[in-house]
Amino acid sequence: MTSTLRTDLLRIDGTPDPVGGTLPILHGLPRQTGAGAGVDDEMRRNLAYGVPDTLLPYTRQGGYDRVRAERELPCVVLENEHVTATFLPSLGGRLWSLVHRPGGRELLHRNPILQPANLALRDAWLAGGVEWNLGTTGHWPLTCEPLHAARVTAPDGTPGLRMYAFERLRRLVLRMDAWLPAGSPVLYVRIAVHNPSPAETPVYWWSNIAVPEDRDVRVLGPADHAFHCDYVSDLRRVPFPQVDGADRSYPGRALRAADYFLDLPAGRRPWIAALDRAGTGLVQTSTARLRGRKLFCWGTGTGGRHWQEWLSGPGAGYLEIQAGLARTQLEHLPMPAGATWSWTEAYGLLQVDPVAVHGSWEGARQAAGEALDRLVPPLELERADAFAERFGEPEEVLSPGDGWAALEIEAGALPLSPLLPFGAPTAAQEPWRRLLGTGTLPVCDPPAEPVTGAHWRLLLEDSATDWHALYQLGLLRLAAGERESARDAFERSVAAQASPWALRSLALLTPDPQEAADLLHSAHRLRPELRELTIETLESLRRAGRPADALALIADLSPADRAHGRIRLAEAEAAHASGDDDLVRRLLAEGIRVDTMREGELSLDTLWLAVHPGTPVPPQYDFRMADG
Predict the structure, then answer these.
(1) Residue 579 belongs to domain with CATH number
(2) Per-residue pLDDT tens over the stretch 417-432
(3) Per-residue pLDDT reduced to its tens digit, 481-491
(4) Total structural domains in the chain?
(5) How far apart are the first and last CA of the chain?
(6) Taking CA atoms, which of 6, 110, 467, 526 is between 20 and 30 Å from 303?
(7) Quick one: 54 and 197 in the same domain?
């Protein structure tokens, strides 16, 4: 029996990697409201707790399109007699493929294309495999970023893959060790999240597992109730699987997109499985800390089918089964200062009597639970959790991550650990290293990538005098939730020297849509070639009800910018607001393809119906998750 680790190349039809933008994300997440029937006091507290006011220090991640060509991506492969697991460290450490070797069956939705779309907190996101999500509600900031990856070995010779990162929004350290023991039918992944802060920190974790979708795939778990979210109604607790007269455990038969967070009874072994007509498919289980389990489906309506093709191409539908720290993805949990939370997950092929799987709910989940106990006995999972502690210091760096953790180590905000060799800072961190070394942040235009943390703010509070340092001080104050003091720093920055960066920040702090549009228009005049700023300016003009100004701005753009899908959509919306529906119909007939269409966004279908009343929305313009 053998267990091996090797590096390889994944060849796939894909777009170039998304790139980080210049503009930091100054908005946060909406406060959770609409907790309906059956939501208890614990969940209500968690729904209200920890929602970030901004996504600083991150910038948007875009720059992608839908033009694909064959690519080669570095990957790391773990393999034994039963399982081959392929990881992509350069894309958030995603588990891209999990093959059951005896039958050659792929257990995950292995996307045939590499196509980013605007579903993550920072925009770019990929469908497929198992995505690890840390930080706050949504697809995490590092989903399309490289993690550090290294080879580790247990005393018995078992090789392991260690991936690790510093998540900068919550300032948490993530460590993931994955391994395949010789003879094991399942892949093990042990996850540890450490809070190095002297203060309590809100924490969120979900492992998002994409699996193939079919009408006869049934999702099973040890629960008879779920918290239901359909993107329209309040979150509510419902009996499961019978919801509104239909069996929702067969997601391939659902018309509408929906989330079902299974309400697992306390003390019950946590697991979730997606099993096909023959009673076989992927099962995921974990040690007890990973409490939540979820089923997500896009639905079979026009909008749901369009989203599936948008993300994976024709004929590659998928659903998701997920596992998280809280009962729902709308919650955050308080993590004490200095704490480390860890758990171990297992992934493998589950085989169950198909008659039982597709029979009564009680019989199906009991048969699947018994099969899981045979596949991975609970005691075996506990042993695996303890075994992970035997992986020591990395022996070989397989791929580098970014330099932000190394910078924080230099600043004394993170401890140096031989278990997590974060390497050295890179060029992106150099301005902040200069601040550490000299007490002065050099002027950069465009600005240095933002940082967060009280130690950086303390340095700038004492030294910021030029426009750039004052702008960065404003961002640090804003990240700390101090909007008025942030506004003061941005105003002082503009007084020292007008810059598009501080003007934009002031625009996003003002509640007056007219003033915000004026400030962004001024920012745009200073950098008319910066497309992400152009798009924000057009959106501010739309909110302010100034379509004539938007059309005038668009008329002065370069042909390449004017042809961009998001800007063509803004032109069509401004034309409609101006009463020129003939122009709107012409633009729609020519084609408006918005590569960054946002999950839940209704702009294209709304625009179509506004100028073609009573006419069905064409599939290419239908992104409706609720009624499409």
Answers:
(1) 1.25.40
(2) 999 999 999 999 999 9
(3) 999 999 999 99
(4) 2
(5) 51
(6) 110
(7) yes
